[in-house]
Structures are given as structure tokens and as C-alpha cells.
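To: structure subgroup
Subject: Chain for Friday's discussion

All,

I'm putting the inputs and outputs inline so they're searchable in the archive.
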Amino acid sequence: MTRADGIEYGSSILGYPRIGARRELKFALEDYWHGSGDRGKLLAAGRELAESTWRELAATGLEQVPGNTFSFYDHVLDNALMFGMVPRRFEPLHAELDPIDFYFAMARGKPDFPPLELIKYFDTNYYYRQPEVGPDTEFSLGRASWLSENLLDEHARAAEAGIELRPIMLGPVSLLLMSKPAADAPEGFRPLDRLDDLLEVYIELFEKLAKQNTKCVQLDEPAFTSDRTDADLAALARAYDRLGGAGLRPRILVTGEYGDLGPALPILAASKIEAIGLDLVSAPMTPSMLMEIAGLRRKRLYAGVIDGRNVWKAAKGGKLDYLLQIKKVIPDLVVSTSCTLMHVPVDKLIEPDLPGDVADRLSFAKQKVAEVIALAKAISEGAPEHWYTRPATVHFKLKHEVRQRVANIRPDQRERAPYAERRRAQAAVLGLPPVPTCTLGSFPQTADIRRARYYYGQGRLTWDEYAERLREEIRRVIELQEDIGLDVLVHGEPERNDMIQYFAELMEGYAFTHMGWVQVYGSRYVRPPILYGDVKRRGPMTIEWITYAQSLTDKPVKGILTGPVTMLARSFVRQDQPLYETAEQLALAVRDEVADLERAGIKIIQVDEPSIRELLPLRERGREGYLDWAVAAFKLAVGGAKPETQIHTHLGYSSIAEVVEAFNAMDADVTSIVATRSIDWVLSELTEHGTAIERGVGPGVYESRSAVIPDIDTIDDRLTRAASAIPIDRLWANPDGGLKTRHYWQLEPALRNMVAAARRLRRRMDADKAPKA
């Protein structure tokens, strides 16, 4: 639809999956990384994915098509490089490597060049490589000109095809707020200190786009859907005063994905930008609330009413009524998604095996585009009657026994014996040395294991043949760990396709896709299961493999389970009941597995909760309530464990005080944290919140997601610094995550160096205790 002034409006989305419906990007990347594909083939695959996306979106009738949605690895890294944010430590590689290889070096690391830190992307399941900025960072479009040239070239090619793209990039303030100070930056420096310099480069790019007849550019400012300081808000105002006043530029759309823009919204409404995108799913606003924002009525409003983060169909009748109410107060309205659609699978129609009652309620990226278009059309033409006659929410069949068990939960079921008592009992049973060494669960999934799993699924291997392959791999992993000298072993998890899906497949209440892939980072994708009904175990889930592993060694072997909050956070979850109720059902299933492991003689059980951080509300309000029920679910899962059973957990990407403070409340005996690249920060938190270190802590002494192999001195230094903040009798040495994505040639020397560093620290401890001559 087109207004009299020629400005198109009506329907748009804020981004789209870039991986391809059948993971085309993953295969192209891994072929290139492994040497079986050349650079030209990789670049051609990327171009085809980008072009097919905008051609397909234009063909649907979407009135505004987003551009620059493709990335070979991470869009945050793309933005950082496009504006010249190259850390000084990578400069030796800049002239040496081809631009795409330099890009991958920053993302994946090289020997002596650790990659940029991997950071949680707000409260999503995506991770980004964190840019590094210093006082001498040289912002420039020329440092990685291929990225800006690709953006301009894509827009030109689309225009030749009659398609007007709206290029998407991170807003300058969020880009700096999501960055960290360079290692050599002076104390007190903030990347945001360089805002004015960065704005000049944005303006330069805007001018190039305007000269190419780009009508509108989208700047995402998701950092402002979390609590920000007055200085941050002042920087936002300054940035958009400067960008809005630029002499030659496209129209500017600023979006606030993943929540409520809060005090940033009046600032944007008062600026000279033309359009604002609001997430009205995570943070609905009434028409009266919108009317109270001075200046908003004069903007074009991208109303994000279609959920970009879950897979359930929208109740379109209710959405339409809401949009019509908004249109009365803000007439220039574009129906849109709440955020980019990169967080959902591409297409429901390539999933033939979903249960019918579940499939009928699902909407993946392609279907969400259709929902946006249908709503925009209905604003002008009215809605079909069935939008209002069909129920908005389907309640799937409930399980009385599950609901009764949740209703009967007692407070004492969440409590264990006092920690001091447990510690004595565990020391007597386990007999571990100071600074015990271990890993956090998974070992590399070899091609043979993946092939065996595939053949079993295809019926080309019997269960007995498949099980024997798994036992062979477990035996090999146990022998390797004993040879390395680890103190606590794991079975390596060869039977698990994914830490979520494996357990979901053994529970009732879940449905699964074949091609429902979602990017986590780089070429790492997952297929989140769809949690639609009441949850219960079908039977023991891990006993067969862990007991076999324990039979091969006298050292303790950890049982590894996924915790209830992580099962929740990494699934597409039903919306007909509160999250905490679903978490209680999952916790009871985990509790039953813990009991089975104890009966099987397993002395250490790790219940992973790396996703407690993922669901944490972005703003302070709501965090306390969330942590209350998240911690309560974890305690219900482990509350039945005996004192002599050592309970471990793993908190991923937890560099935030509220989660660190949850250590004590969770009452785990040992907590491992992702801290390798931010170890100083996390250790300062542990020191400041001293009660958190009454339990054991494994701060993570090498980065499991990097190909870099740390030497003994590096790990020794990290352990020594950790020992300054964590009592030595509480300190553990471990990687900062699972090792599934590594290769054995990387893993084995890294673990040997970790064991050597821990033994070195023990020797120094013994020397300090020895009587002085």
C-alpha cells in the first residue's frame, strides 16, 4: 500500500534467518574451514543466501524488505569491522591474511591470537563476538571495506531487480555499549567515550547510501531495552541529534528489540529520526501510554506485534484489534515483528512429522512474514471471521498425575543437609586432591559417532549395534582422561545429539523438528524442541551410559544432566501457563533422574544451568521474582540428593552480579562459570560478593569454544589469580564449557596443560606449608 506522498507503509520485519532453510551456510563455512571448499565457493554461497532471502521476501508481498541481514559468522562482528573496530592485538594479522580469513581469525582465533570474547546477546539464545575499543581505535570504512562495499552492492543489485532494501545495522550507541575496553586502554576508559568519532563514520556511510538512493536505514539499539545510566541516555540523545541532523542521509528507523525502551523512547521520539520500532510482544504499550510520549505521534511506528522469538501462531484477531487502537493515536503505522526472525526456524512447511495438533499452532519465520502481511492487509480491508471464532490459545491434553505432583511439592523437598555437613561427607567418599581437575561433560562428537547416530535413525544399525559403538567411544574417552590425569571423569556424552534435545526426546510433552535449526553463533546451530504439554520422564535417561563408564575406572565419573531452567530457556515453550509452572514439572523429572543416578552408585552429579542468565529480565524490575522461581526449580531438582552426593552446576555467561549472588541460594556444592576471557571481572565479583564462595567454584581456565590451545603458564596464571579470590580448598580447574565442538588434537594438549598447571599450584601449596629451615 502507498500513501499519497509516495511513502510506502504497511508491513515489514526487523530481520530474517541467514543460515538457509537447510543449513546451507553451515556446510559452506565448515567446508571452507576444513579445507574442502575454496574462498570463491564460500563467497558465492553467501551471496546466494543473501540474495535469495530478499528476493523471496519481496515476492511474498512484504512492503519493506530488510537488507544486510546476512553474516558469515556474527552480525555484531560485521558491524564492528565495517566501522574499523580492529583491536591492536590483531594488527599483525591484518596485512597477512585475506579479509575473510582475518574476519574468521577475530571470530575463531589463531595460535597466539585468542578470538574476541563470546558474549550472550541480551536475553536470547544467541552469542556474539564482543568488539574491543580503545582510545586509539581507528574508526574507518576502509579497514574492512569489503563489508561496507557488500552492503552497498547488495542494495544496488536489489534496486536493479526492482526491490528497495532497508539496510540494517547496529546503532552506534549500542555497538559501543556492547563492546569492551581494549586490553591496553587506560583505567576508567569506556568505549562510549569514542561515540563522536564513530558517528562521523556512520554519517559517511549514510551519505554513500543516500547517493545510492537508499530510502531508509534501520539502526538497532537493543542496549536500551535494559537499564542504562544517565550518561548512556545522554549519549543516545547526542547520537541521534547528530545523525538526524546529517545533511545527506536516508530516513532513519531506530528499533528497540527484546523489551521496553523505557526512558530511551522519549529521547528518540524527540529526535529528528523518522521512525521507531517497538517490541510490543515483550513490552506491550497501551494507546494511552503511547500518546503520553511527546513527539511519537509524528513518527512512523513499526509496531512489533508478531513474536520474533517463539514459534506459536499469533491470535490475529486480538492483534488486529490492538493495532487498530494504536492507529487511532499514531496513524503512520507499519505492522512488524518484535525483533529479527533469526531466533526462530525458517519454514514450518518442511517439517512433515510434527504432530498435527502441534503443527497447526506453529509459525516459523516464513509463516510469521505471512502473519505480518495479513495483519497489515486487515487494517485496511477487515479480517476474516475465523480470526475471531477460533480460540486464541490451545490447551493441549493435561496430565493429571503431573499437575497433582506439582501441587503437592513441599518446601522441604527443596532443601538439602547443611553445606558443612555435606562437605565433610563428600570429602570422605571422594578423597579428591586440592584444586581437582575435571571437564564439564561433553567430548568431541566424532564423525564415526555422528554417522552411527544417523544410521541408527535410518534403521541401518540395530539398537545393539549402535549401543556397542557408543560403549566403544565411552571406553576410549575414559582411557584418554585417565592417561591425561584428570581427577574427576565424564563419559563424554556420545549418545547426546544436544544437551536439550537428548533429554526432551526422553520426556513426554515435547515435539521435535528435523530442520528447525536456529543459529547460536558461527556455524553452531541447535534445533530447539517444542515444549507444548505437561512434562514427565518416560524412564531413566542416563543410567545405562554413566554406569558403564563408572565400571571402567576407579575414579569418580560425573553424571551430567541438563537443569530445568536451561531446558525451559532453550526450548520453544508453551504459552498457556506461567514459565515457573513448566519449570516445576521439568525440575521433578530431573529430580527423578538424580535419584536413579544415586541408586546406581554415582557420587558426583552435575545439573547444568548455563541458561539462568538467558532468562534474566533485562531490567532490574522482575529480576528478583525471576531468580526466586529459577533457583527454586533448581533446588527442587537436586533437593533429594544425599549429603555424600556432590552436586555440581554450570552457569554460562554469568558475568552479572545478580547471578553470581545466586550461588548460595542454589546451594550447589560446586559451581563452574564461564570466565576464561573475563576472569578478572568475575573474580572481582566473587571477591565483592564473598558469600558466594562458601561453595566450590570452577571459574573456567580455558575457553572451550576457541581453537586456541592455552599453554601451562597461561592456565597457571589464571589458576593463581583465581586462588587469590577463591579459597584454595574450594577451587576447581576446568574448561569454561563443554568440549563437543572441539577436535581431539585441540582438546588433549589443552587438558594436559590444565592438569600440569593444577599440579604446579598444588606443589606450591605444599611448599608453602612445609616447615621453614
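Points worth raising on Friday:
The longest helix spans residues 744-769.
The chain is about 40% helix and 10% strand.

D.
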